[in-house]
Amino acid sequence: MSEEIGRRDFLKGSAMLAGLAIAPGMMLYDLAHGENRPASSAVRWGMLIDTSQCEAGCDECVKACNKENGLPGGTGPTDEQWIRKVELKNLKTGKVSSLPMMCQHCAEPPCVDVCPTGASFKRADGIVLVDRHLCIGCRYCMMACPYKARSFVHEPIHDQKAEVPRGKGTVESCTLCVQRIDRGESNTACAEACAKAGHKAILFGNLNDPNSEIAKRIKEVSSMQLRADLGLDTGLHYEGL
Amino acid sequence: MDALLKAKKDLRNFYLLVLFGAMVVLMGLAAAHYMEEHGHIVTGMNNQIVWGMPHVFAIFLIISASGVLNIASIGSVFGKAVYKGRAPLAGMLSIAMLAGGLSVLMLDLGRPERVIVAATHLNLTSMFAWNLPLYTGLFTLVAIYMWTLLERRMNPWIKPAGLAVFTWRIMLTTGTGLIFAFLVARQAYGSAILPPMFLVMSFGWGMAVFFVVQSVMYAWNQITPDPVVMGRMKNLLGIFVLGTLYLVAVYHLTNLYFAKQTAFEHFILIDGGIYSWLFWLGYVVLGSIVPLLLIFLPGFKKNCHVIAASILIILGSFSFLYVFIIGGQAFPLDIFPGYQVLSSSFGDGQIGHYAPSLPEILLGFGGLGIAFLITLVGVRVINSLMPRDASSKD
Amino acid sequence: MKRLAILALFALFCGTASAEVTVPHLDIGKGGHCVNDPKFMKINHGDLLKKQRTITVHQGVIGRYSLIKCVNCHASRVNNSVLGTNSNFCQGCHVYAAVKIDCFECHSSRPETVSETLTEIGK
Lengths: 241, 394, 123
Prior knowledge:
The complex is a heterotrimer.
Chain A: H1 2-32, E1 45-50, H2 60-69, E2 83-90, E3 96-102, H3 110-114, E4 120-122, E5 128-130, H4 140-144, E6 151-152, E7 171-172, H5 178-183, H6 189-196, E8 202-206, H7 213-220, E9 223-224, E10 236-239
Parallel strand pairs in A: 1-10
Antiparallel strand pairs in A: 1-8, 2-3, 4-5, 6-7, 9-10
Chain B: H1 2-38, H2 53-67, H3 69-76, H4 81-84, H5 87-107, H6 115-120, H7 127-150, H8 158-181, H9 194-220, H10 227-257, H11 262-271, H12 274-296, H13 303-330, E1 339-344, H14 358-381
Helix pairs in contact in B: 1-14, 2-5, 2-8, 2-9, 2-13, 2-14, 3-5, 3-8, 5-7, 5-14, 7-8, 8-9, 9-10, 9-13, 10-11, 10-12, 11-12, 12-13
Chain C: H1 2-20, H2 38-59, H3 67-74, H4 89-97, H5 103-106, H6 116-120
């Protein structure tokens, strides 16, 4: 019996080894054919935000996002903010918490439902984006979003980052650093900056992969989705609220 | 000789009015161009109050465009003779106001040059997308309806065409209401009462616009309207104003009853500053109660009283829409129920600020200008638009 | 006499007109081997970019016809851009053909040293 298990493990192991050996080859194949893999619904990108780790007054995530995406970083009412820091007080207990707030990347995004042209869309891997080629700037998505996640570009802009095109008269929001994901990287600018600053408040990963760190943590700790009553199944989860 | 002189003077006045209308439209277009060039930074709108003054004007025009057809429907669908003679003018006004409203809505877009994208990429889950065929459909149906009214050979088709217009405009105003009713997360909007509320509003506002235009036309042509007819029409207007007031009351009462909406209602009704003032003084007192007194009090029987009431109803409707659209967005979203927002760089938990700028107001007036110009030319070109009663005296 | 004058005027106009329309001399930047034959690209780059943009935005596929890569190779070495003067790669030809480009209202017109992977992908 034990021998049987041993053999099974051996077979499993060699299959995994073979997989490991083939995978880079597959990647090379993709590269040789000039394309990376399209976003797949086997993946659902998400975040777990641990508010107990988030330090009040720290805005490293915001700065990193601005730098990564070429945002000017103004905080006026007409400035674009893809991520912001919010400080909250629990009305019953008085407990104060700090957290980053951004697009929640809903599974059922209201912005996608209301967009007249289909410019607001959800990628197969769960990232909610705006196709700025189709956006007519009607701002209906901003009316529909329960999280105030979106910004309208109120002025002409110059010197955009090559990988993050943005323009006047269209709506934009957090993309979960889609340019990094498509390059094959596995962390967002904000999560990276948060860790670098010595906090571990933002954990980014694949919610669909049971072995990912994020999926495991969500299983273990108690977390919540913002405005869960709306049933939008957000990709962002908050811990410690 | 006198008649000739009068005709000459008429024509001069007509061209002066056309010039005036064209100036207003041009100013609106210039404002839209300025907004496009510089971006929405030159408006008062921002990331919290994303819809502003242009939307107040546009929604007024679109709602009234549907409501004014009431006059036509009562004539053609319900067979009331008094209204039959007024159906052509109602149709003309509907087309004019719809064109004005849609122009404002389109020119306010962040990317107005891409409006064709909106027509070629329809997202069927979007109420906005659904409204597009509703608008074009109304244009087409009203045009066909007017054809049946004005072309003698087409007269047998008046009733089916009128019925189609009647059905369509109810769908259209329902659609306009649903644009807001489907916004689930906003305290001000996500409510099933909005479509019927918009519908009854459209009756009152459309009729008020009709009264004003009709009176101007009577005065221009020195016609004394039949007092019996006017009396009946003004009573109907009063009933619509009452109906609107009732639905607005129910809308606010249901909000007050839902515990989580009370903060919002407190804001709109009591300490919202400009919004509370506009609601109570602008909409309730001047826009509803005073017109009701002018309509129903036995002392007021003159034509000018009805006109005053109509103008007040129109001003009241602007107040209402300002409170509904802008006040509704100024109140912050409740993103974190059970928490108080201590600080946020994006205005979470704070009342949004909005001060309309000149360009967006000019754009709004440009929409009114378009409606005015179309009506003016239409009335001049098509003789039978003149509302006539068997007993009215020339 | 009058006719002759008119004819002369006409000839003058034609002369000046034809003198103005010269095929632009384009600064192709780094240039080198393009993804396709230049003749083919001249005709089809618009369609290719349009198709590519949908695939890139909606599926995340960084393809062969990425605008970033066009800019990286064709930005002028003088002003580091595909726009700016009528000899710059994109602007020069589009001014000549009188076709408006709005790509660069949102997209960067300057090359950017992007990550290794991106340059690797779709070589």
